[in-house]
UniProtKB/TrEMBL annotation, chains A, B:
<dbReference type="InterPro" id="IPR022488">
    <property type="entry name" value="PPK2-related"/>
</dbReference>
<feature type="domain" description="Polyphosphate kinase-2-related">
    <location>
        <begin position="43"/>
        <end position="260"/>
    </location>
</feature>
<feature type="region of interest" description="Disordered">
    <location>
        <begin position="1"/>
        <end position="38"/>
    </location>
</feature>
<keyword id="KW-0418">Kinase</keyword>
<dbReference type="InterPro" id="IPR016898">
    <property type="entry name" value="Polyphosphate_phosphotransfera"/>
</dbReference>
<dbReference type="Pfam" id="PF03976">
    <property type="entry name" value="PPK2"/>
</dbReference>
<dbReference type="GO" id="GO:0008976">
    <property type="term" value="F:polyphosphate kinase activity"/>
</dbReference>
<dbReference type="InterPro" id="IPR027417">
    <property type="entry name" value="P-loop_NTPase"/>
</dbReference>
<keyword id="KW-0808">Transferase</keyword>
<dbReference type="GO" id="GO:0006797">
    <property type="term" value="P:polyphosphate metabolic process"/>
</dbReference>
<protein>
    <submittedName>
        <fullName>Polyphosphate kinase 2 family protein</fullName>
    </submittedName>
</protein>
<dbReference type="InterPro" id="IPR022300">
    <property type="entry name" value="PPK2-rel_1"/>
</dbReference>
Length: 278, 278
């Protein structure tokens, strides 16, 4: 595979397929051959083009209201959810792009069903909303930490498929990305947060406890992706040990989806031609 | 049938059954025999008891957080949605009961999927929320007035069943009431709004246009109820030409559902016994 002709669909999980996370590459090298500087430089140039393209497409989306767009970013700590948002969507206008992070639920949120807090932040016509973590935490951390009984979280796979189908039927394009990093890469990134004073603020002791449950999280992701990757809301498992490759895959998926909308600029108001402002 | 031994389940629509609205009684007389004063007086005494009982059960629900309760009221203009709320739920505490009316959607609401605006108002643990109109308008007025293409509103029956199942799985008791009045009864009530200056504020010319589509609305209700009455979120079609009978049916359904929760008062904090406040 050549980085400039990358087919982003090869990272999409077909409905019913298991992603096989344990054997799935987290690095471009496994796909491209040796990790040469050329691939990285080529990808970085492509990423700049993609970023501009997304800026333009987002403006057209906002102008035409051609669809609602929901981007879900999931991944282990340090997998790059924040950085993907900045780097891939950074050229978009804040008017039509919103990022919503879902942390530990509040008491009020817990008192409602788990889809309550996410539904209210889903996009309107013309908007792109990026979920940094999402309703998937309710079948991930909730499962690993045993926060509700198994029968209850298992039923959620079905709810989520139904919920996302309803959003899609009502005009939402849903793109879900699992930023897939290796256990080793996470060790390095966490160590960097500990060693580099400028990154201290990102580190929490809690992250180490979560890391101890790595295997259980992978099992939870494996099931969640298998059960909820659908035609109307596909999962993409993105090799994310290298930012340049991760950005390339996410950027390409987003651009392809937006370009499929075919959004010519709306016609101007009638009578605008020759109008002189006095 | 005797009014004091009324079985509210006879008004419930079993999953898959059609309500047969055209032939379904809107008056108690059709069920009780002649509409004698005794039945009315008996029902009114029962309704006072039911109202107090609901006040007590609602307080227990709030204290125990035993469930979330969603009551959906639907019906043609003048069918008594407001009056049912006041008369059946009037004894509850505003702390744990909320009424949410859904009128013509705002531009912001229209820009989202139709379940967006209702989901955010669904109840939390311990709350009773009464929807005065609801997401069902999106398969009723939307169908009759042809506001979205048929393929789109038809898919909504499935969305609604799925949405309500998710709410139920997450701890919501859902009770849906169609307040069934006759075409004649509506004529009298609308005329009263026109003739009685104190009721002028309730009248809108638009109501007469909706009345012209009575048959289409009945067809839309017939399909909606057939497709969405489920074990987890049943529809009750309530004969509503007489308020005393309507209140009796709704009150009994609500009391039965809340009593099934078995909500003993929570234990006091340990060490409260013998405690002297100084």
């Amino acid at each position: 595979m050549d980085v400039s002709s990358l087919d982003p669909d090869r990272f999409r999980i077909s409905p019913g397929d298991a992603p096989g996370l344990a054997d799935r590459p987290t690095r471009a090298d496994d796909l491209l051959g040796p990790d040469d500087e050329d691939a990285k430089a080529t990808a970085e140039a492509l990423n700049e083009e993609l970023s501009e393209r997304i800026g333009d497409l987002q403006e057209r989306l906002w102008a035409t209201k051609a669809a609602k767009v929901l981007v879900v970013l999931q991944g282990m700590d340090t997998s790059g959810k924040d950085s993907t948002t900045r780097r891939v969507f950074g050229a978009g206008s804040p008017l039509g792009i919103a990022v919503k992070g879902f942390g530990r639920p509040t008491e009020e949120e817990l008192a409602h069903g788990y889809l309550w807090r996410v539904h209210r932040h889903t996009p309107a016509d013309g908007e792109i909303v990026i979920f940094n973590r999402s309703h998937y935490e309710d079948v991930l951390v909730v499962r690993v930490d045993d926060l509700v009984p198994e029968g209850r979280w298992r039923r959620r796979y079905g709810h989520i498929v139904d919920f996302e189908r309803m959003l899609a039927d009502e005009g939402t394009i849903i793109l879900k990305f699992m930023l897939h990093i290796s256990h080793d890469e996470q060790r390095e990134r966490l160590q960097e947060r500990i060693d580099n004073p400028k990154k201290h603020w990102k580190f929490e002791h809690h992250d180490l406890r979560v890391r101890e449950s790595w295997g259980e999280y992978m099992a939870a992701y494996e099931d969640a992706i298998t059960r909820t990757s659908t035609e109307h809301a596909p999962w993409y498992v993105v090799p994310s040990d290298q930012k340049w490759f991760r950005d390339l895959v996410v950027g390409r998926v987003v651009v392809d989806a937006l370009e499929r909308l075919e959004m010519p600029w709306p016609d101007p108001e009638p009578g605008i031609e020759g109008l002189v402002v006095e």
